[in-house]
Every structure is written in C-alpha cells, then in structure tokens.
Amino acid sequence: MNSTEPTASSHKSGFVAIVGKPNVGKSTLVNAYVGAKIAIVSNKPQTTRRVIRGILTRPDAQVIFVDTPGIHDLAAHGRSSKAHGGNRAPLLNRVMVDAATRAVNEVDVVVFLVDGSRMPDQEDARIGKLLDARCQMPVLLALNKMDLLKPQHVQPVTEAFWALAKHADWMRVSATRGDNSDQLLDQILARLPEGPELYPADQVTDQNLQAIATELIREQVLARTRQEVPHAVAVAIEQWEDRRADLTHISATIYVERESQKAILIGAGGAMLKEIGQRARAEIESWVGHQVYLELWVKVWDKWRERAESLRELGLSAD
Fold first, then answer.
1. Taking the CB of residue 53, how many other CB atoms lie within 10 A of it?
2. Low-confidence stretches of the chain (pLDDT beneath 50)
3. DSSP class per residue in the chain
4. What is the DSSP string of 96-109?
5. Are 304 and 255 in contact (CB under 8 A)?
6. Res 25: pLDDT
7. For residues 136 and 312, what is the distance between their CA atoms, to the nearest angstrom?
8. Is 36 within 8 Å of 128 (Cβ atoms)?
9. Which distant-in-sequence residues (6+ apart) come within 8 Å of 227 by Cβ?
C-alpha cells in the first residue's frame, strides 16, 4: 500500500446537516461540495422543500451533506396566509420546518449557515435557540456571503452571529465563489467519526432521476414567476419511458392552486410553458446523458399545500 493512502481505520464518514433560514445559500453550498446540482437554487424563499442528501467521496472520507428546508417563522407565514384568506401557515410549511428541525439530531455534525452580509434577525436568533436547546452534535457556524460584507461591518456582524448559538468553531465563507470552503470542510472532517463509505463512490445524491427532474422543472417555474405563484407550485412525473437508448419521454404535470396561476404559467399562446419546458429539458438532459422529450401540463389542485394526502402523493411528507 502506498504510504500516502489512508488506512481503513483512518477513513471517515458521516452525515452533516446544513441548517439555516431560507435563502442563506444552503443548497448552493451543498452543490459546490458535491460538484453537481443535486439541489435547485433560486432567489425565492423556501425553494428547498424536503431533505436532500448530497454525497462527497474522497480517498480519506465520505461526507453526506443533508440539505434541509429553510427554518422560518410559521407564525409570520400564518399572518401572510390570513391576509390571503387563510388562518395559518400551510401544512407544507409546517412539514418543511419539522423536517429541518428533526435533522439536527440525525447527523454527526451541524453547519449553522447564516447570511453573513448583514446583521442577524429574529429568525436567525430563533434557530440559534433551537440548536442550543435540541442539538447534541457539534455545531459549526458558517457566515456565508462574506464577499458582500463591507470591511467596517465585519467585526460587529461576526460578533452578533457568534452570540446566537454555542458552536464548536466558525468560518466566514462564500458558497458562490468558494472562499474558505476547504477550511470549512476541514472543520467538518475533524469532527466526523471514522467509518467506511456508506454510498457507492460514484453516487452524488440519494435522489432518483425522476425526483431530480421534478425539481429541475420547478426550478424553471421559480425563475420565471413572481408573487404567489412559486409557493403554490408542485410538479409530478406522470410518465417516464425510455423509448430508445438515446431518448427518454417524460410527461409531467405542474400543479397550482388557482386558475389565475395556471394562466400565468401557460402564458400568452403557451409561450411561458414552452420556455419552462425548453429550459427544464436541457437541465434534465445533462443528468440522463441523452435526448429528452418533455411534455408539460398545468392543472389546478385547490389547496394542495393544506392536505396531508396531497403532500404524501407529491413526496413532500415524511409519513
């Protein structure tokens, strides 16, 4: 054996939860470590709806990153829902927050990722209290978006985040540029247990291709719609057929909650839906490695976010 190769006893493996409020860059960080877009990214809050695992395999370690939905204030979302005719945050929101909070004690290390370009807010403070109260694992504080922070604000912002939660170590990073990502990974590896690979070395996610395709379609919807439409959208694969070795036929339905949202997604003369399909098809083809024929439909599913059976059918519930 070459002396530079790790021995079996020195190999590390384990799970690392990336937690934080919506839009702090959790999925961007996981994608960067894995080297593939296993989680969709947008500037819309609550883009990540379920726990997604991304797998980084090296000769000395295998790190399974657990990308979690953003932990957000359900009371605030309930007030928003009430303004639109509801009484509390949709069941989907509660399921998302529950999945994220459960993850903190189902892993070996927790990375508390925050938007380090600005002072912490109440949601950051709430997550810090949650970690202090419930998390028994090592917590690493990662201040993302360091490239956006002006030098004169570095110390006060950093100290404000330090005070939010007990942490084993911390690092300022930029998930988009990669600044200090290796140093943060070193901190993670130092706290992972020794163990064998838990997944095949060439596997980068625990998701199947159909699950990835639904998210890539939804990503294109998020990129092209505003206001109430993104939160009300879900995608389901209706048919997946490999018609030739180099051609896969996919039929998918985009669900919304109102006729007005359906009209927005279809667009004048079907232009919006056509653009969503073209862009999503290109993304899916990069995963399957050959030509894809993608057929999209838009249907109204009234209040699907409020019903447990709807969430189970769409794969958004842990039940």
1. 20
2. 1-8, 76-85
3. --TTSPPGGG-EEEEEEEE-STTSSHHHHHHHHHTS--S---SSTT---S-EEEEEEETTEEEEEEE-PPP--HHHHHHHHHHTT-SS--HHHHHHHHHHHHHTTSSSEEEEEEETTS---HHHHHHHHHHHHH--S-EEEEEE-GGGS-GGGHHHHHHHHHTTS--SEEEE-BTTTTBTHHHHHHHHHHHSPB---SS-TT--BS--HHHHHHHHHHHHHHHH--TTTGGG-EEEEEEEEEEETTEEEEEEEEEESSHHHHHHHH-GGGHHHHHHHHHHHHHHHHHHSSEEEEEEEEEE-TTGGG-HHHHHHTT----
4. HHHHHHHHTTSSSE
5. yes
6. 94
7. 30
8. no
9. none
Residue 48 has a pLDDT of: 87
Q: Is the dihedral of CA 56, 61, 62, 66 positive or negative?
A: negative
Cβ proximity of 73 and 146 under 8 Å: no
Nearest to 222 by CA among 22, 79, 17: 22
- CA atoms of 130 and 226, how far apart (whole Å): 31
User: In this structure, what is the dihedral angle of CA atoms 69, 23, 303, 217, given to the nearest 10 degrees?
Assistant: -90
- Amino acid, single-letter form, for residue 58: R
Q: What is the pLDDT of residue 2?
A: 39
* Structural contact between residues 127 and 97, judged by C-beta atoms closer than 8 angstroms: no
What does the pLDDT look like over 42-85, one tens digit per residue?
Answer: 888 778 888 899 999 999 999 999 998 888 775 544 444 444 44
Angstrom CA distances, 231 to 80, 228, 235, stand at 12, 6, 12
Question: What is the distance between the alpha carbons of residues 215 and 223, in angstroms, rounded to a whole number?
Answer: 12
Rounded CA-CA distance 211/26 in Å is 19
Pull the structure tokens for residue 61. 């370690």
Tokens of 140: 């690493």
